[in-house]
Write a structure and sequence with these properties.
single chain, globular, alpha/beta, 339 residues, six-stranded parallel β-sheet
Length: 339
């Protein structure tokens, strides 16, 4: 029997949701390409859950090794130059997509696209082909790597759906939980909303009070919004360090609603009683082909939009996503909740 081909990847950079989609991408790849021996580094807080979820096919590393020639990055070209000069190879699944999503492109955007394509040609910075930019991010993360681009979306999607039942079962079993986690006894009779988001995904308090005043709102215990939601008379469930807390809360709920942020990516692999609300990114990029719950797509003309932090106006000039003021969006969301 021939030895497996090693693939060592530093996948520890990027948003938490992006990293979870990345793990799903590589797990799916390992199912398609059993000839690969995949070692992958993710942030420390994700490792215990990642090992339980993906560890039968992936080696979840505890530290970066010299064999990790590929590193994911969210940096611009100028910031990559020092590493490139040292012989580092990068994977950049974001930047071309961000530029392509801009409503108005500037000259520097076209220059950056050209530079990325040149660097990709020489295998220095791997970027996904433009023609598949609207497909699921977990797929883009993998096929950005040059020698994996012959894996079709159809093959990838079929494997995700084949793996889905086992992953769902695994995540509804014994997973790491924070000792501080306390789930209210009546959660099974209530809707739980995960209102999180580093950009305009975040569910506004006024929307919550008007439309789902009796729901529980699950928030990271250190979020400033814990006090904001509590002061508004809304019920809050805090969760803690272990991402498994999110899954445990959702598992016990009557139904779940999540913005298109980190909790939604966990729940897409762990819970079918979930509605995911699209606000910022294209639905096709952030919804796994294996997800069996409900998806509420954006209803506003400025969608998709470029990711910006919540303390500055979005590209269209708003501090709050227009979807939360859109009657059709709210109606579709409320109708998606299963009694």
């Amino acid at each position: 029997m021939s030895a497996k081909k090693p693939l060592h990847v530093d996948a520890s950079t990027g948003g938490r949701g992006d990293i979870w989609m990345r793990l799903l991408g590589f797990y799916t790849l390992a199912g398609i390409r059993p000839d690969l021996d995949i070692h992958i580094l993710v942030p420390e807080f994700l490792r215990p859950l990642a090992k339980i979820t993906w560890g039968d096919r992936l080696h979840i590393a505890d530290a970066k090794t010299p064999q990790m020639k590929y590193s994911y990055s969210t940096l611009g070209i100028k910031d990559l130059i020092p590493g490139i000069l040292k012989g580092e190879k990068y994977i950049e699944p974001f930047h071309k997509n961000v530029i392509q999503d801009k409503k108005k492109k500037q000259l520097k955007d076209y220059i950056n696209l050209f530079i990325f394509d040149v660097l990709d040609l020489f295998g220095i910075v791997n970027v996904p082909p433009a023609g598949i930019s609207k497909t699921y991010h977990g797929y883009l993360e993998v096929v950005s790597i040059k020698f994996l681009r012959n894996i079709s979306w159809e093959t990838y999607s079929k494997q995700v759906n084949k793996d889905y039942p086992e992953i769902l079962k695994r995540l509804n079993g014994n997973i790491p939980l924070s000792p501080e986690l306390k789930i209210p006894d009546d959660v099974s009779e209530n809707i739980v909303v995960f209102p999180n988001g580093t950009s305009r995904q975040f569910v506004p308090v006024e929307w919550a009070k008007t439309n789902l005043p009796n729901a529980y709102y699950a928030l990271f215990h250190k979020d400033n919004e814990v006090k904001e939601f509590t002061d508004a008379g809304l019920k809050v469930i805090p969760y803690y360090k272990e991402p498994g807390d999110i899954i445990a809360i959702a598992k016990n709920a009557k139904w779940n609603v999540s913005t298109d942020s980190f909790p939604s990516h966990l729940l897409q692999t762990a819970n079918e009683k979930t509605s995911v609300c699209i606000t910022e990114v294209s639905m096709s990029r952030v919804i796994s082909p294996g997800f069996k719950g409900k998806v509420i797509d954006s209803e506003v003309p400025c969608h998709p939009c470029v990711h910006l932090t919540r303390n500055v106006p979005c590209a269209a000039g708003y501090m709050e996503c227009l979807n939360w003021k859109n009657a059709t969006y709210t109606k579709n969301l409320l109708n998606s909740i299963q009694a």
